[in-house]
Amino acid sequence: MSKPEQAEVNSRRNFLGTSIGGIGLLAATVSGCGGSDANAQTTTPPPTTTPPPTTTPTVDAPVCLPGMALAVDYAALRAERMSKVTPEMKAIYDAALAGPSIRTIGIPAIRKSGEQPANAVIPPGVVAKNIEIPGPAGPIPTRVWMPANATGPVGVYISTHGGGWNFGNGMDYHDAEEGAHVLEWGCAVVRPDYRIAPEHKFPAAIEDCYAVLQYIGAHGAELGFDTARIGIGGGCAGGNIGTVVTLMARDAGGVLPALQFLWSPACDMRNNYHSYLEFANGYGLRADDADFVTRNYLRSREDSYDWRASPVLAPTLKGMPPALVWVGQWEILYDETILYVNRMRDVGVTVHLLEGPQQGHGFLYLHPDTEYAKATLPKINSIIRSYIGPEAKKS
Question: 84-115, pLDDT tens digit by residue?
Fold first, then answer.
């Protein structure tokens, strides 16, 4: 990272002189400073459900002073940033700014757009099959990809896929993506077709994925998995689900993953950090789109105060397994991700944090052909292999 880029990050982190875990965070948690509810209160209402077990969160809440956001011309700031990026990145950001919103495209059209024949091609060296895993609302359709040359138990990655809790479902059009992970990481990949919103509201998705983790822990050996080498996670909503399921497993005393892989994770569904203002439009995931998918997923605003929706509010993160976290420095989820990372580190959880300079939401995987992604993905793959790949296999 260049000195000007680092200076910008440092400036943002110390915007209000607020420090949590040694790093200044940029959050807007009082009325008038962002988020989807103009009547948001400064006090935290209790959740409507009673997750197992929970207490009142003790997370410090950095705030945006009323009117502070109005002092910044974010459109001008974006234009200045775009003048400094490479032509390759500018083209990506121009498309992000010009593209229609999720609400405009519509949920059915977005789901349909993923049904591309190229996505249904299994790479050479990979075999796939469909199974069903018992779930709280009936069998969970699940697709499994394995190394074709496996001669013994292999590690397994549970892909709690992204898609804003609204998309990414189905099992027929993910062979290329997940098959590539099998080859890159040297492990099996399991992708549950968990229930999605708005047809199935919170907490359906996490209940399904928790059931899958428990099943893999109990029956993984029958499927050819080494249950000491389980990974879990995904991007955005997938990162949210993966880490929440891990919290649930920790609390239940069940099988814990060896690694959480969280990229551009949604960690706080109150959606009211300063980065939601600064990167609201033209950096990938828009703030209004985040509000749209969140409203589709949650039953009510009160659900956003439930740690199963907002894991940053978990009473403690102690005892969580190591986490590999990637986040773009120019995305709306940046602030909450850094807060979650610091909360994990504060209680001794090992966190491998990679921040993407000049990167928007999920750009690492959404734009894998950029120079940044081509330099960074091998680092990601190496870390994952060290936990759940052949390199992690105990003699």
Answer: 999 999 999 999 999 999 999 999 999 999 89
Q: Are 184 and 178 in contact, with CB atoms under 8 Å apart?
A: no
C-alpha distances (whole Å) from 67 to each of 33, 34, 37, 304 are 7, 11, 16, 25
Nearby residues of 300 by Cβ (< 8 Å), 6 or more positions away: 48
> How far is residue 330 CA from its own chain's centroid?
15
84-106 burial by CB neighbour count: b if 16+ within 10 A, else e? eeeeebeebbeebeeeeebeeee
Model-level pTM?
Answer: 0.85
Calculate ∠ Cα 96-97-102, nearest 5°. 65
Interatomic CA distance for residues 286 and 105, integer angstroms: 14
Calculate the CA 40 to chain-centre distance.
25
Q: What is the pLDDT of residues 200-236, one digit of tens each?
A: 999 999 999 999 999 999 999 999 999 999 999 999 9
Question: Domain 107-392: which topology?
Answer: Rossmann fold (3.40.50)
Would you list the domain boundaries of the chain? 107-392
